[in-house]
Amino acid sequence: MASSSSSVHNKSYLYDVFLSFSGEDTRKTFVDHLYVALDQHGIRTFKDDERLEIGKKINNELLQSIEDSRVYIIVFSKKYASSSWCLSELLKIMECHNKGERFAFPVFYHVDPSEVRKQTGSVGEALANHKDKDELEVRKWREALKEAANLSGLDVSKTANGHEAKVIKLMVERVSLELRSINIGVDENLVGMEQRMQALDPYLEIGLNNVRMVGIKGVGGIGKTTLAYAIFDKLTPNFEGISCVENVREKASRLGLEKLQEQVLRDVLKDKGITVSGVYEGIKLMKTMLCGKKVLLVLDDVDQINQLEALAGNPNWFKLGSRIIITTRDEQVLIAHRVKCIHDVTMLSNKEAIRLFRRYAFREGVPTKEYEILSLEVVRYADGLPLTIKVLGSQLCGKDNREWTSTLEELKTIKFPLRKLELSYESLEEDHKKIFLDVACFLQGWYKDDAIRMLESCGFNAKYGLRVLEQKSLIVTLDGKRGGIIGMHDHLVEMGKNIVCREHPEEPNKHSRLWIQEKIAHVLASNSGSEATRCVDLKITCGIFLEGLENMKKLKCLIVNHGKHKCSHDLVSDLWNFFGMFWKHDKARQYFPNSLQYLYWDEYPHLCLPKTFEANNLVALEMRDSKIEQLWEGEKVMRKLRFLDLSYSNLRSLDLRLTPNLERLTLHCCYKLVALDVHGECLKSLVYLNLNRCHSLNLKSISFIKRLESLEVLHLSYLDLREFPEYIITEHSKNNLLELHLSRNNIEEIPSSIGNLNKLVSLDLSDCYNFNFKSLPGSICRLQHLRTLNLSCTRIEELPEDFGQLECLEELNLSDTIVKHLPGSICMLKHLKTLILKFCTYLEKLPEDVGQLESLEILDLGFCFHLREIPNSICKLNCLKELRLEKCTGLKHLPEELGNLKCLQLLSVWGTGITQLPQSISSFKGLKTETWNGILDAFKKQWRKADNWKYNTE
């Protein structure tokens, strides 16, 4: 890309600016300085230094140059009208200007605009010299002068106190703005770019007088480079020096970093004679020569930290106001260089994708309905990736219906865009490549915490590896429980699966990973499994013969029925009544290779694991909904086992001496469990224990908890405990316990010693119906790290007065309690985001200073029947997104200044006594408002013209 601000877009014009001037009195002074300034800002300017003087006729070549220019600067000077050449230029310029495609800009240099307009003074005298010219031609010149003088321009003597340097700077800015407004809209193929450019404005903050580095990250083909170039073109006029270095990764490897340093210096300083012999010399030159320039620098496709160190090593290399834009696939490069402003480029929306596809597939034409349907199919396949959409559109352009269908299938098969995306994969370390392939083949859609356990079980540094993939934009983490949900773009999934299959496309038994059910069934049925296979993800069907697993001697990971995809309880039971016979035959004696490190099996159909399975290498065993009653017949120690999940199983007892190094034990809903055998320090590494709904356990049977030195998370909900298990509060738990869940127990009192759990982050005491106010000790206010407190469905009447000391609290749930009022100190909770008071039927009012909860996003007051008013201070909650007031029957009105809540997205007032909403919220865009039939008509009338009005009559 050239360094010119307009070179990307202005394809139909040879020049950005045409200078019209009288050489006799401005060529070596004002016009010369103006030309240099325009050139330094990358504005292509035509200036005819060889023009003929007075009396000579303008030639066709010069007229064509006017046609080929986008902006005209007309420098009116004392002798401008003396030149028939200049006047002929002016006539042509005004002709082009009046077509509405180009822009003329007059500059009055030592001549008054009125003299040009009225042709008096020096201008009138100059015109008088054309007595020998054709009268019609002179009349046209006069009209052109008058018309040009009426345009908005600059009077040099009356601008910036006559300082010509400042006037020229203003002129360059004016011209640049005009070119920018043209350029932004020229390339119509840049669909969705305007919104993405706007999204970058808060990162760039051009008005701030600092040096800022901004990172743009995303997968290959998503439009990082296009976005950076568009920003570059837009911002160029605001800077004294500009440079755009394309393909840094490739050029640094091929040419060396010193050549890129040389390019930056030459571009910014406008000196093509600068040479750089080495990287260290280049760094010194850049430090000393760029610090006096306000620079706009784009570094495209960076993949190594040394590239940034050589090209933009430190902010103090540049003058205040400079901006450095860096595009990369690897966020870690930006983090390592301490780039704080990092923008993630998003995929195109469906509408944007359709628009972009049409541009490439139909050019100027309009698709028929039949092609509209095919277009939707293409866009669904592309899934928002611009690269894919462009290639598909180009491939399908001009083809008929039959060719469209066949070509689309062909393109899907050959996976045409994946080679470019594969660059990101090839740059990974070997372990990270394996993690990427595991995500592509198995783990997309998994909860992140579950995926981490699987990967760690197979020997990977999973947390770091997934973070690397996310930083390289190869995966994303979607909102959700258990650390979020791992997501991967469809094209990356395709690429990963293609990498696994392509070396042996017709021999699945040689693939490292197996996930296609038909291929797995074939490999197992033909007993052709091999040591090449590391991971298998299968669903139990009638075509599966698991004895074939025996040949997979190096199998590390076996996943069976993950998520119970298509297997109902009855189907699995029926199938395994049939398959169970294989357990009794010697030829099928071993279904689990001893190499297994991760074994996941939903609805395992047998009472215990097979004797022949040594499990010496097993790190994770997850068998939910199984029929297991005990792990083994007899005893077998699994020293490497770290994760054990037997939730919803028929487990009756568990000897934890067999699993001495457990870190995570989940026995949720093991209703038949009566005993856990724990001896000595066999659970010294346990950090997570879930015994929820293990109804047959009692206080005595779980007393071993006091010996758990490393425990961080403890779930004891739904155990019908009648006392608080005080033995959980030990010297160890004081410093380690982060989460304590005791919901749905019959506990009556909470001991004051609970305040000693000084690391506690989450406390759940919900549904403990026997609670009363006296059972909530004031010591709870000592839990300085507490973020979540759930007291819903308890008999709490009021909170301690010192409640505001819980300064880290983010979520407080008091729903369905008998709280009558909240202590004023609750308004001191500066980090509180969620406050739930639903069904607090005795609550009469909120604290007057509730507006001090500056972080509050959700306030739920639904079914608070005795609530009479909402304090005016609520209008200060600038972060509030949801306000729920349904069935607050005593509520008649809302504060008039509710419109100050600019973040509000949901306002629920159905079932209240409110008949009219404050007028101030009528301008809210995207506000979802829930009302009820009794006032529906009034709302419709009030908001008939508001496009954002939505209502729910349920």
UniProtKB/TrEMBL annotation:
SUPFAM superfamilies: L domain-like, P-loop containing nucleoside triphosphate hydrolases, RNI-like, Toll/Interleukin receptor TIR domain, Winged helix' DNA-binding domain. The keyword NAD applies. Residues 13-179 form the TIR domain. It comes from the Eukaryota. One of its GO terms (biological process) is signal transduction. GO terms for molecular function: ADP binding; hydrolase activity. Keywords: Hydrolase, Leucine-rich repeat, NAD, Plant defense, Repeat. SMART domains: LRR_TYP (SM00369), TIR (SM00255). It holds the Pfam family TIR. This is TIR domain, P-loop containing nucleoside triphosphate hydrolase. It comes from Helianthus annuus (Common sunflower).
